[in-house]
Amino acid sequence: MGHQVIIFDFSLIRGLWETRVKKNKERQRKEKERLEKSSLEKIKQEWNFILECRKKGIPQSKYLKNGFVDTDEKILDTYGKTPQLQKKHALSDEANKEKNKFIFQLSGEKWTEFPDSLKEQIYLKEWHVYNTLIQTIPAYIALFQDLRVLELSKNQINYLPVEIGCLKNLKVLNVSFNNLKSIPPELGDCENLEKLDLSGNMEITELPFEV
């Protein structure tokens, strides 16, 4: 029995091998490009995120953890609204400040009469005076033509001056829990009066016909 001789075509094997090597190198090249592109994209994303955080005034400690950038969008949602809220609060505070310019407030038993400086503030729209020992309302109240609200509860006021009838824009008058015994007919001249509280003045039995 003769020997069998196996013959290999090395050129064919080499061609197949080179093709595989070439394909493998191509895959490696594409993977490298993909990783580089992904890395660049990530760096770009992180940088844009940092710029957005700086723009919105977010402190670095909120988005930089152990040297790595945390691109969690919740950071922008949580802290990005702060400047806007601060702006709203600032506007609200400014509005309140402007409003308070037209409001006079006084309380405490140390007060037995209205301060002299009050007569110079005829632009006021509201008086809020309570828990004082004040007994009389000054006649110069007639000068307060813009007065809308007179909250004078829990004082010692024993009468309302006839000048109160000059307050054509008065809408609210609260003189509850004072020492009033009667109401002047001139109160009927307050044509815009919408609310009148006389409760707690035990000696008032009836209102004038004009009221």
UniProtKB/TrEMBL annotation:
Cross-referenced Pfam families: LRR_4
Any one Gene Ontology cellular component term annotated for this protein: cytoplasm
Keyword Repeat listed: yes
SUPFAM superfamilies according to UniProt: Outer arm dynein light chain 1
Keywords from the named record: Leucine-rich repeat, Repeat
The keyword Repeat belongs to this UniProt entry's keyword annotation: yes
Protein name: LRRC2 protein
Organism: Himantopus himantopus (Black-winged stilt)
